[in-house]
Specification:
With about 550 residues, the chain is α+β, with helices and mostly antiparallel strands. It has a seven-stranded mixed β-sheet with strand order 12-17-18-14-15-16-13. It has a five-stranded mixed β-sheet with strand order 2-3-4-5-6, with no helix packed on it. A three-stranded antiparallel β-sheet has the order 1-8-7. It has five domains: about 110 residues, no CATH class; about 70 residues, Roll (SH3 type barrels), CATH 2.30.30; about 80 residues, Arc Repressor Mutant, subunit A; about 110 residues, At1g16640 B3 domain; about 120 residues, no CATH class. Helix content is about 35%, strand content about 25%.
Length: about 550
């Protein structure tokens, strides 16, 4: 839509049902500089009348709507306002054009002068040899006295060709495509601040019209979930057991029930995006409700400025969930994770940056239940995303069955349906023995050796570590957590350096071994290596004791 001038003030003022939005239209578009409607939408602000419109829209539809749907309806509503106001106000009189003739008593509109409206009170011949013949009209303008304007000019003038009517070729889809994202963000902020609206997941409705769900009905929902082993159960399946008024539409019944369940601490909404599923919080796995000890990371301050490009590349390769890495664009390509000790022991996977959009995380709730499928056997088993603490739970028994170990490759692939993830190891046809770094516990000490160990799947040579007795190792956890980063690094480096004739240690191996003792992302470790006087870089992320290189 395009205009050479703005909207004309109609004089309806506050009596109009959308007077505040009308004022905004006039203010943003009714100026002599004639801004385009792009400027109007770019400066769009949600008005009280817009919220009233959305209340009426939701009431009439009798069902909740998503933010995208409400944004589209609001855009359509505002666009209709613009068109209506233009047509209504332009009908009040003749638009001033220098070539036209006017008579006393005519009402004339001057869009190029901020939509000024006046009445012609006199007409006289004009006097200017360059332009004769022409006429001059005297116009009485409210609050501005009288002004004169040339008319019946035979010379060309841009105002003769100006158009002030809406461009019918511009649709609500055009406006929504260009400005929908900005309008949606402003509308979301307004809805969240308005007491009359409530939302469940991605849908919104009017608070006053929600169906009341009684404590007794919530008890029935709890019993249904308990009989299902805690869940998950869909909202519509719970609704079948709860009698809500038949005269209320089913979408509103579902929304009201979900709103009541969300406000009750007994229930968790754990479904992936677009699939509301309910679970009894008391029956969720302990490792979902409480972060496993081995995964708990206490942030370690460090200076990222000391990390060079090689170190940053390794950090990205490791893809630790607590590394400060950008989230890549969504991709359907399979991803591979190198299994670390904390996740191996906890039966989890890191919710790292490169898989942030892979697992179902697009939910408001913290815990999300989904389905793993064994890539080899096709068997399915439950998985849980814990967004706040950045891990995915549910693989302990599967790791044991697949003979996975620290350093094993874990391959992930999207399933055929939302909320389904295929998981696999790169199995070796016949189990074989490989030379691996091994760690055993003697008292308070860790003993590092290289030994032949049976393996059943492929692994990363630099990250692989065999732990003889994980239970004994975990008993030293408190001791490790009290130690400084420098002392832990010295313990790991000293043990690993003795396994190489060159006494060189790769940073990937250091990271893997450090995480046997304490949950540490690569950043603090690499910064300690870079700033310590004890270590020197050999290039390609290999390090040695200074003086031994």
């Amino acid at each position: 839509m395009s205009f050479t001038a703005g909207i004309i003030r109609t004089g309806k003022g506050g009596d109009h049902p959308w007077a505040d939005a009308q004022d905004q239209i006039v203010r943003l578009m009714g100026t002599p500089s004639a801004p385009t409607t792009d400027q109007y939408w770019e400066q769009f602000a949600v008005q009280a009348s817009d919220l009233d419109f959305l209340v009426n829209y939701l009431v009439e539809s009798e069902q909740p709507h998503t933010l995208d749907e409400l944004t589209y309806e609001l855009t359509s509503y505002r666009l209709a306002q613009i068109n209506e106001l233009l047509e209504d106000t332009l009908a009040q009189g003749q638009v001033y054009r220098p070539a036209d003739a006017y008579e006393v008593g005519d009402n004339v509109i001057f869009p190029h002068l901020g939509n000024m409206v006046g009445e012609v009170v006199a007409v006289r011949p004009g006097r200017n040899p360059e332009y004769e013949p022409f006429s001059v009209i005297r116009v009485a303008v409210e609050d501005n006295g009288e002004r004169e304007f040339a008319t019946e000019l035979l010379h060309a003038h841009p105002l003769n060709d100006a158009t002030y009517l809406p461009d019918e070729e511009v649709s609500v889809d055009d406006v929504y495509t260009r400005h929908g994202e900005e309008i949606r963000a402003k509308l979301q902020q307004a809805l969240e601040a308005a007491a009359q609206f409530v939302n469940v997941g991605y849908k919104w409705f009017v608070r006053a019209l929600l169906v009341e769900v009684s404590p007794g009905q919530l008890n029935i929902a709890e019993a249904v979930l308990d009989m299902a082993g805690g869940g998950p159960v869909r909202t519509d399946d719970l609704l079948k057991e709860i009698d809500l008024p038949d005269e209320i539409s089913e979408p509103l019944q579902l929304f009201s029930l979900e709103y009541a369940l969300l406000r009750n601490s007994r229930f968790d909404e754990v479904g992936p995006a677009g699939h509301a599923l309910w679970y009894l919080r008391s029956l969720e796995p302990k490792e979902v409700l409480e972060t496993p000890l081995l995964l708990q990371y206490v942030p370690i301050p460090y200076n990222r400025q000391v990390l060079d490009e090689v170190m940053l590349a390794l950090e990205e390769q490791i893809a630790d969930e607590w590394s400060d890495l950008p989230v890549p664009k969504r991709s359907d390509d399979p991803v591979t994770i190198v299994l670390s000790y904390p996740h191996w022991r906890s039966g989890t996977l890191p919710l790292a940056a490169h898989v942030a959009n892979f697992f179902p995380t697009a939910r408001i709730t913290d815990r999300i239940r989904f389905t793993f499928i064994d890539a080899e056997t096709g068997e399915d088993f439950p998985g849980w995303v814990v967004r706040s603490n950045r891990y995915v739970y549910g693989l302990r028994d599967w790791y044991k069955a697949k003979q996975a170990f620290v350093g094993a490759f874990i391959d992930l692939e999207r399933g055929d349906e939302p909320g389904v993830i295929r998981v696999g190891v790169r199995a070796i046809r016949s189990q074989r023995r490989e030379w691996l770094r091994t760690v055993t516990v003697e008292g308070d000490n860790l003993i590092f050796e290289v030994a032949r160990v049976p393996v059943g799947c492929e692994f990363d040579d630099l990250a692989a570590v065999s732990v003889a007795d994980p239970v004994e190792l975990d008993l030293l956890r408190d001791q490790f957590n009290r130690a400084s980063m420098a002392s832990l690094l010295e313990r790991a480096f000293g043990g690993l350096a003795g396994l190489s004739l060159q006494r060189a240690v790769h940073a990937m191996t250091l990271y893997s071994v450090l995480n046997l003792m304490r949950r540490v992302p690569p950043g603090p470790m690499l910064a300690t290596l870079a700033t310590s006087s004890r270590y020197t870089s050999l290039g390609d992320n290999y390090w040695a004791y200074r003086g031994e290189a």
